[in-house]
Amino acid sequence: MKRKSVVIPGFGLTTGVTLAILSVVVLIPLASLVVFSAQMSASEIIDVITRPRVLSSFKVSFLTAFVASLINAVMGVILAWVLVRYTFPLKRIVDGTIELPFALPTAVAGIALTALTADTGLVGGFFANFGIKIAFTRIGITVALVFIGIPFVVRAVQPVLEKLDPAYEEAAGVLGASRMRIFWKVILPELIPAIFTGFGLAFGRCLGEYGSVVFIAGNMPFETEIAPLIIMSELQEYDYSSATTIALVMLVASFITLFLVNVVQNRNAKILKGGS
Amino acid sequence: MSTAIQGGLHRDTKGSKLVRYSLIGISLLFVFLMLILPLITVITEAFKQGFAVYSKAVADDYTIKAILLTLEASFFAVAINTVFGLCAAWSLTKFKFKGKKILATLIDLPVTVSPIIAGLIFLLTFGRQSPIFPLLQDADIKIVFAVPGIVLATIFVTFPFISRELIPVLESQGTDEEEAAALMGAKGFTIFRRITFPHIKWAFLYGVVLCAARAMGEFGAVSVISGHLRGKTNTLPLHVEILFNEFQYVPAFAVASILVMLAILILVARSVIEHKGRKK
Amino acid sequence: MYVELKHINKHFGNFKASDDVTVGIEKGKLIGLLGPSGSGKTTILRMIAGLENPDSGEIIIDGKVINDVPASKRGIGFVFQSYALFRYMTVFDNVAFGLKIAKKPANEIKERVHELLELVGLSGLEKRYPSELSGGQRQRVAFARALAPNPQLLLLDEPFAAIDAKVRQELRSWLKGMIQKLGVTSIFVTHDQDEAIEVADEIIITNRGRIEQVGTPYEVYSNPKTAFTASFFGQPSIFKDYSNFRRFDVLENAENAIVRPEFVKVTKKTEVQKYKNSAEEGVVEEVDFRGYGIELRVRVNGVLLTARRSFDQPRIKVGEKVDVFIYRMFVTQGDTATLLENKSLREPVVVI
């Protein structure tokens, strides 16, 4: 049984400070969003959301975020696998570099990727030979989102893979299962919750991403305009109601994602604690 | 552990070697293309027209002002999140109370909110259409399109960064040592300084580094709340954006290179701290 | 009474950790709080220390109600189950901590710490960190640290739980000797009956938040008053219906019969048995080697009993028919336990 103490001082002070800062920085601002949107009528809200340009921005946002997270799920597992199971030169540097998207300002990532994938850029120039454009297309948005999302999957899968009991695989090996079979039937099922967690976190982050996308997207209405960008342009025209409405939709979407991730993560935590 | 698997049970067949080398190859290629190459691009673009142009762009008045504002906003954000992180971690791990889970969830909430929306909510709270706007105006307090707004938005996007690092460490450490010290009559601050802090030193430093990194690089939220007043409310990332949109590519990448170097510094600091923390 | 608890109640959520606990402890005694896990023994200890507040009831130390006295002002030394040594302080700093908080002069602190470390046999290890010590050494440091401010009452939570079985034995006698030498009133919590019996002057038995019985180790062992105490000690065989064992009084509303191994004498058919006439026949189902001798499992009248024999006695094999004589048993009626003697013991005996 876990007990918490009555003799340790500081409960009032620390909880008070916590609640005070939380209120000023998070609760009151979020509440003002709710208050503001409560002043709008349902028809106004539906009106904003069903504008073709808004609808298409949702489509672009969800589609690119989904595809990017899918790519990250696959690449994340490969990277985690390579980092946990193999030794090779530069391994420590690779491991550290995974964290780069957390450390590099998104705007910098955005202009760098744009320069790289534009027709004049190193990578963009190569693909232009085949008639494939990256920058200023949905492919470009996806590339930026892959950059943003990759650490989420790797960091979710890595600890589970490290904890995975080798006895499992050994047992499967003794029973004569081939390596591919062992991976699909023994290892992958263990990793699924972690992959899903990483996928969900990356997806949530990608949905809201702005800095890295705004440069590479080109921001053509109906083509490469993402939802955060629409919010931004509504704000620049001081149309706070439309901006708030679109923001609400995005908030609900990311809270649902977070909720699903939490459900899976709770199960995942049990696996990590049990060790097998 | 891993080598035991490879060397022991599974013989290194030709097929398995092929799988291993192709997986390593794919990984290296991915990391190089997606992560390393963009960094190199920033540096090469920045120096495209030589060192003189580079240093002129970096030493530009607006750039210096943007650096100072970025440092100022980051300093306040880190300071307030430090106070918050320490208090929240102490409260959530040393005591049992109703609503604790909800509190923990609320603290984590900001990271799931899009930076643009983070900026928007401060605009709605303190901006022109807010009910408290007249009050702020009477008191001559500017928040939106001014430094306080930038600081608030930055605190928001980095909100759980420090508490998130501290809570698991304190959780696993338990409360026995603090109880023992309290039984001997030690006061709160003494207990924290002498008993608790040595346990969380590295996690705390790690959290501060993460918080500082994100604070210096925040773009979306700050972009909404700052109003883009050049030389007044422009942070470094915003300054990069303006230069880029004005097709001043070399200066844009020159300023960006400062942020790249900060990012590399942070990654190195991160791995050093993690290494030290692990040894303990 | 030096320490008194009066009608203490304590809940954790729906869990009743203390249920009207009333008990007193004399000055200078070494008390063992004994009970299974979840019986509320640690809660009692933590409430005396002030680490937990009772929902109702009074805690009295030395004649004063101390419910509202902060833990640090109660004059108590506390040794935690996991010792709770300050991991980032040396042995010296650990022991000195309480004295430094009390703002004692530096030379006095130094003197006292060295005196204590000498007492617990750790002189020379002042500069070590807890991680560089063995389990037994850590316990000694925890002990010295608790004693440093000269407490009037020493509380120890499962003091031997974190120590290897081999060292534990040695530490038990060490701790008992040390506490007797210092004469400080001490209470320790344990779930290990042997430990309580060996170390304590007096045992308080707890079960489901209540005090079952208080007495010297001999009293609680040989004269259990409650059904729980009777079944807690030894290695009892417990069964429902004892009417087949003819030589015992039949009590009304009897629930269980409890027979300890030392209440049973097993003899081979060829051996001399003083009470042969009143012995029952049993079949041996298990013969196990134990360090102290042989442990037998014998089925008598459909009941499986545990019994012991020494190595000197002739060997018994599994499946062998033997004579089983039961000297006494405890019979429980509701919460109380009654000791019944075999009636043959009171009758004149004819040796065949």
User: Mind summarizing the main beta sheet of chain C?
Assistant: 6 strands, mixed
Separate helix tally of chain C:
8
Q: Tell me the overall shape of chain B.
A: globular
> How would you sum up the major sheet of chain B?
none
Tally of separate domains of chain C: 2
Q: Structural class, judged by helices and strands of chain C?
A: alpha+beta
**Class from secondary-structure proportions of chain B:** mainly alpha
In whole angstroms, the N-to-C terminal distance of chain B is 22 Å
Name the CATH class of the largest domain in chain C: Alpha Beta
Give a count of the beta strands of chain C, DSSP E runs of length 2 or more: 19
**What is the fold named in CATH at topology level of the largest domain in chain C?**
Rossmann fold
CATH homologous superfamily annotation of the largest domain in chain B: MetI-like
Radius of gyration of chain C: 25 Å
General description of the model:
- The complex is a heterotrimer of chains A (276), B (280) and C (352).
- Chain A starts with 10 loop residues before the first helix and ends with a helix.
- Chain A has 276 residues and is mainly α.
- Chain A has helices at 11-38, 42-49, 52-85, 91-97, 100-103, 106-117, 122-128, 138-163, 166-174, 179-208, 211-217, 227-236, 240-274.
- Chain B is an all-alpha fold and 280 residues long.
- Chain B has 2 domains: 17-46; 50-279, MetI-like fold (Orthogonal Bundle), CATH 1.10.3720.10.
- Chain B is built from 14 helices and no strands.
- Chain B has helices at residues 2-9, 14-46, 50-58, 61-94, 100-108, 115-126, 133-138, 147-157, 161-173, 176-183, 188-217, 220-226, 236-245, 249-279.
- Chain B is globular and about 70 Å long.
- The two termini of chain B are 22 Å apart.
- The model of chain B is unreliable at 1-11 (pLDDT under 50).
- Chain C is an alpha+beta fold and 352 residues long.
- Chain C has 2 domains: 3-223, Rossmann fold (3-Layer(aba) Sandwich), CATH 3.40.50.300; 232-345, OB fold (Dihydrolipoamide Acetyltransferase, E2P) (Beta Barrel), CATH 2.40.50.140.
- Helix content of chain C is 24%, strand content 33%.
- Chain C contains 8 helices and 19 strands.
- Chain C has helices spanning 41-49, 91-101, 106-119, 135-147, 165-182, 193-199, 217-222, 227-232, and strands at residues 3-12, 15-25, 30-34, 56-61, 64-65, 76-79, 153-157, 185-190, 202-207, 210-215, 237-239, 256-259, 264-268, 280-290, 293-300, 303-309, 321-326, 328-333, 336-341.
- In chain C, strands 6-7-8-3-9-10 form a 6-stranded mixed β-sheet, sandwiched between helices.
- Chain C is elongated, with a radius of gyration of 25 Å.
- The model of chain C has no long low-confidence stretch (mean pLDDT 91).
